[in-house]
Amino acid sequence: GDSVTQMEGPVTLSEEAFLTINCTYTATGYPSLFWYVQYPGEGLQLLLKATKADDKGSNKGFEATYRKETTSFHLEKGSVQVSDSAVYFCALGTQGGSEKLVFGKGTKLTVNP
Amino acid sequence: GAVVSQHPSWVICKSGTSVKIECRSLDFQATTMFWYRQFPKQSLMLMATSNEGSKATYEQGVEKDKFLINHASLTLSTLTVTSAHPEDSSFYICSTASFEQRNQPQHFGDGTRLSIL
User: Do A97 and B97 touch (CB under 8 A)?
Assistant: First the structure.
């Protein structure tokens, strides 16, 4: 079945450091890929998405490129801020996002001043 | 602004109590709603999928008599944890999707933290 494997955390960085959170997937067909962010005590917010191979999703300085050849969707940010501290979830969906999603286990990011 | 409203955000109650959690779609008609459960420091586990006007589809291992889901309208779905026990304590999150916007990502509520004493 479909699955998402996400880099285990926690990840601790200093402000302005470069961030990479790895995500690989296994799926039949051509899924859409998502990154969601969860701030403490809150629900999930969509951070970015990509719906086909070679698409790059971007938002708030975060980027991820849909790599079909490596079945990956790694999240990157060039310079993290303290406010980026949260848990990040990689997810896939097979119908663009409105169907049930398969989530990775989440990666907790802590950014220190 | 918020697209999905989930209520209550936090509830503490005694063992044996039934607890109802509401999930409201504010800006569009949610033909589908998903209910997730999240244990501390873990990922979201899909519990069930509900479509407006029909019975919910439960994931394997989820007790349908324990977790009652009602999706009577296009803007409201409820999850009732019946006769809750301490092991039901968790963070419950709903999300909504629309057939008309079926290529758009789901919108998530802010979650409900349930603590059973």
Answer: yes
